[in-house]
């Protein structure tokens, strides 16, 4: 794994390199995705069935596209009881964490007859996309569905690509049932996103689409934004470990590799104030990589987007971490809580050497759907807020409006909006006669 001295030049080079991983840089796929979306919008089920056969090699029809209760029951029979128990424990941890995010309507009034407030309403229908194919992600099901259920969403639709035989992974179906999904459809890729955005004969239109996917899914979500809401356009996974001389090099190496194994575009970065630690972590990475099952992916990921950066001071290291704004940030320092207070930009912050990133992926409770590609500077993790909308409440009595209506009229006339001014003035025209 390459080692560099951290300075303004190396930091800028790294930031530019990491940005190449953004879905926004894969514009060559956009025309194909747009074509698929247009076809699904026009031909609906017919297009979804055809693309499913083309990409997933599965025969899907109006009779079998929706997962049945019998299929879900069969999935429960296939999932090991110990795994089911873990899914249920994780579900409860995620639910408890997200319950604390709930917002409620509020109203405030005074004696003059003014009532102001905010009405909080859950979204009506939400679509959750869950990857399939070679990937099995029951954890993503829990992380996307439970905040929606906690928010009070009435109807949750899930789309996931089928296997060649038309089945869906048993653990995915079990996680969906446990989390509270209402309907599951066998559709993947851009065609599934389009189906949820515009509706087909089989798949209902939703108000918002959430969930991760490949570049086609990411670009499809980007394309349908505005017709529906989306959570984000997710890029490849990333981790940044911030460490000093007290860190355990074996732990740091293991955590870097836990992200590098995701795919060849994943990023793993160590920033440390200790040259000695940098050397030891590099040695541990070499040892681990020889024995891990996804060795080829890891090596490619580290070659392209893996860095060990040695900083002159912790202040310099923290500043670089804030500039990179990593999806996952681990702090392995002598005073990790003090360092945490100086972190402004990170999707999730893991404090201390026993808070490994996979803890957040699967079990702790905070959401693992996080901002990537530096968007942690302005985006937050998926949460209950993503599944609600807010309406402002305004009520003035005649007496309350009378006190302020000349001010409103003046403001409207300043903007040359005479109809605005008139709609206020007309309420008091008799009194002006």
Describe the protein's architecture and organization.
- The protein is α/β, with parallel strands linked by helices and 433 residues long.
- The chain is built from 18 helices and 14 strands.
- It has a six-stranded parallel β-sheet, sandwiched between helices. A five-stranded parallel β-sheet has the order 6-5-4-7-8, with helices on both faces. Strands 2-3-14 form a three-stranded antiparallel β-sheet.
- Helix 2 (30-43) crosses helix 3 (45-56) and helix 10 (249-260) packs across helix 11 (275-291).
Cα(first) to Cα(last) distance is 84 Å
**Spatial arrangement of strands, main beta sheet:** 1-11-10-9-12-13
Report the sheet with the most strands, covering strand number, pairing sense and barrel closure.
6 strands, parallel
Per DSSP E runs of 2 or more residues, the count of β-strands stands at 14
Q: Which structural class do you get from the secondary structure elements?
A: alpha/beta
What is the residue-averaged pLDDT?
A: 94
Radius of gyration, CA atoms, in whole angstroms: 26 Å
Describe the secondary structure blueprint for this structure:
Blueprint: E1 3-5, H1 8-19, H2 30-43, H3 45-56, H4 69-78, H5 81-99, E2 106-109, E3 114-122, E4 125-129, H6 138-151, E5 155-160, H7 170-179, E6 183-186, H8 189-198, E7 208-210, H9 215-224, E8 229-230, E9 238-243, H10 249-260, E10 267-272, H11 275-291, H12 295-305, E11 306-310, H13 314-324, E12 328-332, H14 336-340, E13 348-351, H15 357-362, E14 388-396, H16 398-414, H17 418-425, H18 429-432
Parallel strand pairs: 1-11, 4-5, 4-7, 5-6, 7-8, 9-10, 9-12, 10-11, 12-13
Antiparallel strand pairs: 2-3, 3-14
Helix pairs in contact: 2-3, 2-8, 2-9, 4-7, 5-6, 5-7, 6-7, 8-9, 10-11, 16-17
